[in-house]
Amino acid sequence: MDTVLRIDTDGAAVALPWPDDDSERRQTVRAAVGGPSDRAVYHRRAHLHVHGSGQSECPMNLPAWVLASLWRGIDIPYGLYGDVVVTGPDIEPLDADMVDEVLSVCAAVAEVRQEWSSRPPVGEAQARAELLAAGRHVLSRCRADAGR
Prior knowledge:
This protein is α+β, with helices and mostly antiparallel strands. Helices cover 45% and strands 17% of the residues.
């Protein structure tokens, strides 16, 4: 099954129907992010497609930011905004290992955000650190399960 995921700003990860034709794929990405998109490459096996106008009109996408930071290996100093589509390189479908990484990190971020309803973070730096630690934990587990 061809899998491409949209990460919504609320943290939900949704599988998108993925057509065979490249122009239809680009249209699917455009519709999913709500307008023109820019491709952001943080991993050689997964590309993020973000809204082309950036933060001017969209809320921050925490799970996408955590993924990008972990895949890049640094705390990215800027946010990713709006719904984000995750594809393989050249708008191909994701392989199963990458689907697992995306879904696991989205779930970990959702769990941390749920905890914040009863125990808010002290500040932005602590919130970032907590999100990245949760993501790092599940990412290492995914990679161990996949034998990487």
